[in-house]
Design brief:
127 residues; alpha/beta; 4-stranded parallel β-sheet; 9 strands
Length: 127
């Protein structure tokens, strides 16, 4: 593959809330020249400083909404990263984390990173 991502450092969210990143996709990014670093939106306080791009994969943010919402330093870091026009790829659960709020399965509404307007709501199987 082309080395089109040479010099790019992609920070990938990886923890109990975000875990649906396929190894083949990560290997492709590396084959294209990107460096990969991992971080935990649940436990870390900032996006890794060397990151020039961000990937928020799918997962279960609704099960960890309280911890994500209470990590105000990470939310601030996410907002700064976005305000600086850095690229962000958000899929499924990662997309929910980018919204203003997320309502969990118990009906509790939690503040998310507010990178885009909207409210995510988790429903039971009857949906």
């Amino acid at each position: 593959p082309s080395k089109a991502l040479e010099g790019v450092t992609v920070a990938i969210a990886r923890d109990t809330a975000f875990s649906f990143a396929y190894a083949a996709n990560i290997m492709l990014l590396q084959d294209m020249g990107a460096s990969i670093v991992y971080f935990s939106p649940t436990h870390d306080t900032t996006i890794p400083p060397e990151a020039t791009a961000l990937w928020l994969p799918g997962g279960y943010p609704e099960l960890h909404a309280k911890a994500l919402s209470e990590n105000s330093r990470m939310i601030s870091s996410m907002r700064r990263f976005h305000e600086n026009d850095n690229p962000i790829l958000a899929e499924c659960g990662g997309f929910l984390y980018c919204m203003e709020t997320l309502v969990d399965l118990h009906g509790t509404e939690w503040t998310m990173s507010s990178l885009m307007p909207g409210k995510g709501a988790m429903k039971n199987k009857a949906g």
